[in-house]
Amino acid sequence: MAASVRDDLLAAGLAVFDRVGFEAATVAAIRTRARASNGSFFHAFGSKKELAGALFLEVLRHYHAAVLAALDPVPDAEQGIGRLIHAHLDWVVSSRREARYLFEISRSEWGDDVRDAQRAQNARLAEGIERWRARLVARGELLPMTPVMFVSQLIGPAQIFCRAFLSGRDRADPRAESATLIACAIRALVPPDRINKQ
Q1: Is residue 102 within 8 Å of residue 57, measured between CB atoms?
Q2: Sequential DSSP letters for 152-179
Q3: Residues 6+ apart with CB under 8 A from 49
Q4: Longest dimension (CA), the chain
Q5: Which molecular-function annotations from GO does this UniProt entry contain (predicted)?
Q6: What are the angstrom distances between the C-alpha of 115 and each of 34, 61, 64, 85, 193?
Q7: Residue 106: which pLDDT band, with cuts at 50, 70 and 90?
Q8: Residue 33 Cα distances to 17, 41, 44, 119, 152, angstroms
Q9: Which residue ranges form the domains of the chain, and what is each CATH number?
Q10: Start-to-end C-alpha separation, the chain
């Protein structure tokens, strides 16, 4: 029962934050949407900020799971680049409300309480990508670079399209640019003599 109420409150929080933003959202509006009592809310979460942090971690976990699923079964370099970019774009479009929350609405100042848990989740994602990438770097199938540089070259350009889509500045589906984004990432991450030769 408690898990169900907590899940209902998280879902309601996501809907309210998406509609009015974090600052304008109220505990009362979240409770009303979740059909939860004041006591139920404060039994599950100490504050709106605490709910927001828990929601951030939940959404981040879903996003990371979608990304890591792209690496199973283990792909070669070009396949992996393509799958990771597709996974990012597909998740943003199919989970638009969650993506808006993760990339547009969430704020660092109320995330301090979940910073350690966020770092742990990010580390698991990085480890999963690195397990796939390190073998390919060692075989000369991916260019050597830091993990942070790799991810920025892989997802950074796609994220620009996604942010424009999530904010409403561009209504076009960012997946329409996937072939170009993948081709550019391959040129940035795969040695020129290994492109399309794996």
Answers
A1: no
A2: HHHHHHHHHHHHHHHHTS--S-GGGGHH
A3: 110, 113
A4: 63
A5: DNA-binding transcription factor activity; transcription cis-regulatory region binding
A6: 26, 14, 16, 26, 41
A7: confident
A8: 12, 12, 15, 31, 38
A9: 1-46 (1.10.10), 54-189 (1.10.357.10)
A10: 52
